[in-house]
């Protein structure tokens, strides 16, 4: 759904409530921790994928026998 003829003057006076600064900081800390965890998990996943690639190559070339 879109709004036709919505202009800045129409919404300029809207008040947008913000949480208090300590709460904003806490939210930022939580999001930062989540980002760090995601980055760590992605790095781990990438290492596992690389290991799988190497192991598959060893198996396919006969370097390692099953």
Task: Tell me about this structure.
- The chain has 66 residues and is mainly α.
- The protein has a domain of 43 residues.
- Helix content is 68%, strand content 0%.
What distinguishing features does this structure have?
mainly alpha, 66 residues, 68% helix
SSE succession: HH
How large is the count of helical segments? 2
The N- to C-terminal Cα distance equals: 59 Å
Percent helix, as a range, is 55-70%
Q: Which value, in Å, is the CA radius of gyration?
A: 25 Å
Overall pLDDT metric = 92
Protein structure class:
mainly alpha
Q: Determine the strand fraction and express it as a percent band.
A: under 5%
The beta-strand count equals 0
Provide a compact summary of the structure.
The protein has helices at about 10, 20-60. By secondary structure, the chain is mostly helical.
Map the helices and strands.
Layout: H1 8-11, H2 21-61
């Amino acid at each position: 759904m879109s709004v036709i003829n919505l202009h800045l003057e129409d919404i300029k006076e809207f008040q947008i409530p913000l949480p208090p600064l300590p709460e904003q900081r806490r939210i930022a800390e939580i999001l930062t921790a989540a980002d760090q965890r995601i980055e760590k998990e992605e790095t781990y996943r990438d290492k596992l994928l690389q290991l799988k690639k190497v192991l598959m190559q060893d198996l396919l070339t006969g370097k390692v026998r099953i």
